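Hey L., structure's done. Input below.
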Amino acid sequence: QVQLVESGGDSVQPGGSLKLSCTASGRTYAMCDWGWYRQAPGKERELVSTIARDEGGSTTYGDSVKGRFTISQDLPKNTMYVEMNSLTSEDTAMYYCAGRRCGRVDYDYWGQGTQVTVSA
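Output:
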């Protein structure tokens, strides 16, 4: 089993920045990639970004965050980050860290989420 714990959520003003962290524990070797999803009230969950858990660290980004968010990781620390810039009210959501086991299509492991609120 893998445990994922997010941190860093906060309230920020439009145009501001925020950096979220996700720390993994347990059988982390079972994960081949991990990333961030978000869900706003009344909306479906959407992809924010993912990163492969290898030295290459290939990344993906959702269309709504491309050019504004940057995902990164520190594998020895089993920690992943997403730096979010130029935040707007549309970025207000609960942000979830998710991990996927090697060979699986869906994400198997989920954190409890951390709230990001963007408002004036």
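The longest strand covers residues 18-26. The two ends are 40 Å apart (CA to CA).

-- N.
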